[in-house]
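Example with several molecule types.
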Amino acid sequence: MAGLVRRLLYRGFCVPAGPPSTRQLREVEEAAPVFQYAGKAAKRKDRVFVWGFSYSGALGIPSFVKPDAGWKKPRRIQPTPYRLETEDKISSAACGYGFTLLASNTRDITKLWGMGLNKDSQLGFQRSRRDQTKGYEYVLEPSPIPLPLEKPQQTRVLQVSCGRAHSLVLTDSEGVFTMGNNSYGQCGRKVVEDEIYSGSHLIHQLKEFDSRVVQVVCGQDHSLFRTKKGSVYACGWGADGQTGLGHYNITSVPTKLHGDIAGVNIIQVSSYGDCCLAVSDEGDVFGWGNSEYLQLASVTETTQVNVPRHLPFKIGKVKEAACGGTGNAVLTEEGNVFVWGYGILGKGPNLIETAEPEMIPPSLFGWSDFSPDTRVAHVRCGLSQFAALTNRGELFVWGKNLRGCLGTGRMEDQYFPWRVTVPGEVVDVACGVDHMEGSLQSSATEWMGGTMPSQT
Amino acid sequence: MGWRSSHETWGTLEKQTGLGGITRSHTGACLGSFTPSVSQLPAPELNEAPERAPRQQVRFLPTPAPGGGGAVELVAASVPVLADHPLVRGPRFRKLKIGAGHRLDVKASGVFVLGIGHGNKLLTDLYNCHLTKVYTVGGLFGKATDDFSDTGNLVEKTTFDHITREKLERILAVIQGTNQKALLMYSNIDMKTQEAYELAVKGLIRPMGKSPPIITAIRCLQFALPEFQLEIHCLHETQQYLRKVVHEIGLELKSSAVCTQVRRTRDGVFTVDDALPRTQWNLQSIQEAIRNCQLKVEAELEKTLAHEENSPLHQLDGTQLSMLCRSVHEQSLQHNTAAMCQQCDGQQKERG
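Resulting structure tokens for the full complex:
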């Protein structure tokens, strides 16, 4: 047998197979079929992610609280971002104290969804299926909130904001709607003694401002309204001076603020606890409210400031401000973040409190000689944590990690900015007390047929 | 005898020429075939250099007594030792001890660090510094092969027209994010300390022990469909891992990619500018290169190993550490035999 092969080789009747030549390889390559995995539709899908404490229902995933399968266990804390399925594209979101509001700027009838704590009807009236006369106290998944709109198929919801037990909804043509607790007049209507807020159908509408309202902000028990003309209105609890109206009483009708912001064109207002910050178009910062944590100590020794005061910081032109429970952060035009106040401020465990703003080194947000264009685009504040969004779509968080609200995957507090791993670019983030919500943009192509092919 | 002579070869090699230290070369060859060729390179040149004079010994030689009449007297005389004679001993330098730094495989090219003589000890210390390496990785969309490079067997061809630079950069950002987590985990730093904050600001959070490959930074340098080029900063990697990363990038973009080029542009403190190309693999260039990099190596070792608690070098103080690196200089300066090669003499005078 072997002899036969050898004789055939000798005579040249068969050629032993050697390594393939370049030409053979090229021919094989050109003959190979080409696979297409990318679909044609190049629309970007927007997604909502939530993380933090789930038992209040604020994350909107019912299976975390009441597992729908026998093997599933209740999940008290979601430590990393988890995708929330929504039918519509969410344009604005806000996190309150144990509840969340999601809004879409569609013209459809259903524009607003809420989930979480509803003991003060901060999510409107959610009719219970078991007892048609009562409402749910905890809403476990995003449920529509019916607004008493005159033109429900034309008006759009622009922005939402949530406080401790009340919420504000801003529309483009029908003013501001308020719902929830009104014991301090934070909903902008007269305080009714012994009013029962649970299961209430009342949603109040506010229209009397000097011009159209363009931003609504909820503090803990007060509300701030910013109008197109650059003036600020406030109502609600004022014992810390957070209404900025010159007294320490409650206000039940939105009233215009004066003080150092009289005549100033304010372009942004922020509040979450009992302190408030406002930014003017020229880059100046104004503050009022609680100053027990040195938030306003740069201008005054008093712990309550009830009139807006200009904060003379020499840090450059300020673009955005974020006010938390005990700490504040501002973002300058150059993209630097400055922090001051009390608590975990973001410069390591040694910096606990400061009255003057201190800059967080940009290298912590991904800036390096290697990528010098990275800068922070937005800052947000929760009650005891901070979040920063960079222009590359990355999310950095720091502060107290209350019940996993930072989303880093660990349960320890974070003393300097740390990146949260999210699949996609973060467009906006909303911070609450013990949970957070983020809106993401995903990649632009979809898998063909909706399923991923098997990979080698 | 044989052992002694080779030992002497060592000492004299360094004393005469100052050739003990770290050098690096620019190569495309693999380690196994590379080391013998490099180790024999300086030997002929060193052998050509004039040698030191042979040792002298005192011997009592019989000479005829001045008195005459056949009496023999022993007279002390200093004669050269025959064992030192070049015809007896052979060439002084046959091979040099060369150690290699981080591996570079056959298909890759770039900076390759070598240690000569006493420099091999520094190689271990540099390895323990865990410095990042920078690679330029070239890729090609549209093909998938079995060994992730363009010379492998073709597995599949795919479309790639939908890929844009923006999408590629998004994938790179995701890669960087997942690697950052791994970086933190293997760095064993307590995130609650002020020290962790300061290290993070300087960008010094690095794993100082064994860890899987970690990419600290990745970005796209060039993008021209179907080709693209990435710059990758990484730790504890192999070149095949980088090729696999290119393959995975292709998969994430719903296409496929192969790696066409892996080139190391920086290994710790050594960059392409310090490296010697093939044309400059001679004695003088090697000596010059060693001298130029001495300070850099020293500075890096001091900076990084000062953070380490467990390294034995930590017990040495700063002066002792620099002495370790400068011992070569001093030994060569102490050598005071008249017959030193003129080259070395001139170079020493330059050093001062």
